[in-house]
Amino acid sequence: MRRSRFLGGCLIAAYGFLYGPIALLVLTSFNDSRLTTVWTGFSPRWFIALAGNDALIDAALLSLRIAALAATGATVIGGLAGVALARLGRFRGRGLFAGLLAAPLVLPDLLIGLALLLLFVATQQVVGFPERGAGTIVVAHVTASLAYVAVVVEARLAGGGEVLEQAAMDLGATPLVAFRRVTLPLLAPALVSGWLLAFTLSLDDVVIASLVSGPGASTLPMVVFSSLRLGATPELNALATAILAVTAAGLLLAWFVQRRRFGAGR
Amino acid sequence: MRGTVLGPVWAWLLAFVGLPAIVLAVIALAQPADGVPPYELGAGFDDLATVFTDPYYRDAFLASLRVSAICSALCLLIGYPMALAIARSAPARRPLLLLLVMLPFWTGFLLRVAAWVGLLRDDGWINAALLALGVIDAPLPLLHTDGAMIVGIVYAYLPFMVLPLEARLARADPALEQAAADLGAPPWRVFLRVTWPLSLPGVAAGLVLVFVPVMGEYVIPELLGGPGSMTMGRVIWTELFDNHDWPMAASLALVLTGLLLLPALALRAAPPNRA
Hints:
The complex is a heterodimer.
Chain A: H1 2-29, H2 45-51, H3 54-87, H4 94-106, H5 109-127, H6 134-158, H7 162-170, H8 175-204, H9 207-212, H10 220-229, H11 234-265
Helix pairs in contact in A: 1-11, 2-11, 3-6, 3-8, 3-10, 4-6, 6-8, 7-8
Chain B: H1 2-28, E1 31-32, E2 39-40, H2 46-53, H3 55-88, H4 94-102, H5 109-120, H6 125-133, H7 146-171, H8 174-182, H9 187-215, H10 219-223, H11 232-242, H12 246-269
Antiparallel strand pairs in B: 1-2
Helix pairs in contact in B: 1-12, 3-7, 3-9, 7-9, 8-9, 9-12, 11-12
């Protein structure tokens, strides 16, 4: 009993550590004063300034486009990789395959971004392609996040389903039909969460994008990072609050949909 | 069927993971030059040797090792009780508690760092509170110090420690602890002889998940650290963008990659389901 009270205290303190800074940031974003800790009144002025900041809005739109493309690419390639690991057994070169797949998962972003930058520069020199920009960011983000999708998909397939595929094929389905009609529906939740994970990783990345991007393309994190280097601004607090609101709304929606689906199932 | 599954993945992995690794090694051996791109191919091992001999790079390595070690230890210290408390909580409440650990992920990494800038700077929350309480007369220089960098890193990486630990602790059979207690072991002994050993694979996973990325961390040392907090991430960045010495940056990255893949391989070689 005493121990659980100790643990409960630790838990509350840890959540305080995790959420305290965010709470203060949200509070600051509504402060009329430019000074962080001098409260001069409640005001939405930083949100209005944010809405009028075209550079930030353009960067946010670019980030969303890059993240959607990168997440889709990572879901296709990472999904295939997960299927290969779970279903193809000991295929030739499996060790190298798993190693290459896991390398971007374990290595820091800086190393992934640097190696890809050097690759893009070298190929541009040799074959005149690719021009660095949004396209190279998408390729780099697919590379960095496909292993996450593969892990989720592999875990889902390892949880069973092979019997169902066998049954479908025994009943006369070709492997392709069995895959489309049995495996794919089975995989759907893993693919959705893999896509969302890759999407979030892409939206949140500043290091890889800064390294592989060209002069034309600045993502939202790149713009935020360069202004943070000059010091935090109230506009950035407003941006954080806005992102938090969108995330919270999304989570609430997901929770609501899931509850309704569970309710319908019963 | 096999080919359709494996083909695209092999192509992608070889082109964007295998090939970049080879290019990195080739450029590490090249010589810096004025031009675009700023290197001339060759086989010089000077830069790779410099990584180990030049005190500037050696200190950066040591600084990164120290920061990674301190931050993983602090994450373990804060994360273990947290993971244990979540693993022991009522099954109905567990998903919510875990969601609360993951939620800060979705607020944006940079904006979480920005929150600490707001807390630590001269006119920030901590200094304002201390001034108001009369503890200090002039603002303490908190931002742009090693301490600020470490707090920021622990803050950003804590979930990477809690999640694998919690998963491991939740899987352990509570009957084992019950049995130890019934046989007369005091709580601290139950922890040391049962709970802790059973959780070791989770501890190892959490330590690697914090230690490895922090070794290459660039953003937090740059934004919260001081001019003296030259970690590997910052040194590589400086070589690349300020000194335009790409072979040096590639050499540093190559050595760092080698260093980091060792513990990862060790973790993979270790039997994952020993308990």
